[in-house]
């Protein structure tokens, strides 16, 4: 009898270990898939290089800013530069869109909802870089945080080392003008560049481009639907800044007349 009980116990333990092993394999597979996807977005080999937002995939929010000052403000104190919950005239204009019922939003898988949150941050960074470096077709290695350094790099002749001051003045002017416009919503490059990177690393980005004919594709381009998704997905401690990124993306999309997500 004891032998039978021992056998049953061992089988149960074996089944449990097998399930845990399968779960670990699944988790590792998802991590590798996410890394491969981001690398493909930047046209690089995932085994040798990473995109600008992937290079610190192990970063934590506490490590993204000096002395953790922003983390303390974010988690314990009221937000000073985040957009308020009240919708201003500019925000109302940026968020105009057809109504989508909640059933469409609920059709998203939980993983897709999280990836959409990261995609919003990723698309905003991409939009900012495109607005500053309008003639730069390849932006590998460019991040919002290193825009000032990249302006100098782009304006410096690779052989002579001479700086094109006219181009430098124009790019710097475009950068400051953009920050001034986004600043009306509370955007601060020193704070929110790192926050956007944190959101991408935490939530990931979409695995593939949506089918243009699918219902989900229309949801991806709907500001109101994405706003509800952010509210329902992001924890309260990060919500104001996450909504700020969403608002800035909607504003830039409205200004250039292009879809929210550029592929």
From TrEMBL:
UniProt domain Speriolin C-terminal: residue ranges: 116-263
Gene Ontology cellular component terms for the protein in this record: centrosome
Domain of life where this protein originates: Eukaryota
Organism this protein belongs to: Alosa alosa
Protein name: Speriolin C-terminal domain-containing protein
Annotated region (Disordered), positions in chain: 81-105
Pfam families: Speriolin_C
Extent of Polar residues compositional bias: 81-91
């Amino acid at each position: 009898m004891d032998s039978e009980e021992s056998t049953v116990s061992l089988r149960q333990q074996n089944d449990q270990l097998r399930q845990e092993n399968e779960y670990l394999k699944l988790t590792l597979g998802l991590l590798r898939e996410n890394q491969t996807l981001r690398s493909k977005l930047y046209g690089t080999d995932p085994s040798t290089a990473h995109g600008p937002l992937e290079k610190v995939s192990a970063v934590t929010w506490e490590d993204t800013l000096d002395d953790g000052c922003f983390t303390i403000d974010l988690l314990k104190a009221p937000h000073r530069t985040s957009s308020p919950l009240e919708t201003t005239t500019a925000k109302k204009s940026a968020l105009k869109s057809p109504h989508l019922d909640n059933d469409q939003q609920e059709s998203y898988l939980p993983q897709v909802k999280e990836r959409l949150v990261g995609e919003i941050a990723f698309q905003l960074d991409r939009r900012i870089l495109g607005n500053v470096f309008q003639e730069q077709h390849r932006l590998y290695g460019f991040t919002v945080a290193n825009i000032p350094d990249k302006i100098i790099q782009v304006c410096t002749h690779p052989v002579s080392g001479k700086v094109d001051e006219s181009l430098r003045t124009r790019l710097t002017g475009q950068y400051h003008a953009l920050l001034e416009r986004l600043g009306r919503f509370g955007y601060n490059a020193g704070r929110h560049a790192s926050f956007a990177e944190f959101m991408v690393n935490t939530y990931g980005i979409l695995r593939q481009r949506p089918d243009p004919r699918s219902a989900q594709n229309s949801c991806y381009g709907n500001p109101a639907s994405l706003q509800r998704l952010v509210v329902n997905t992001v924890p309260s401690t990060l919500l104001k800044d996450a909504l700020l990124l969403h608002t800035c993306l909607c504003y830039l999309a409205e200004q250039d007349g292009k879809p929210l997500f550029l592929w």
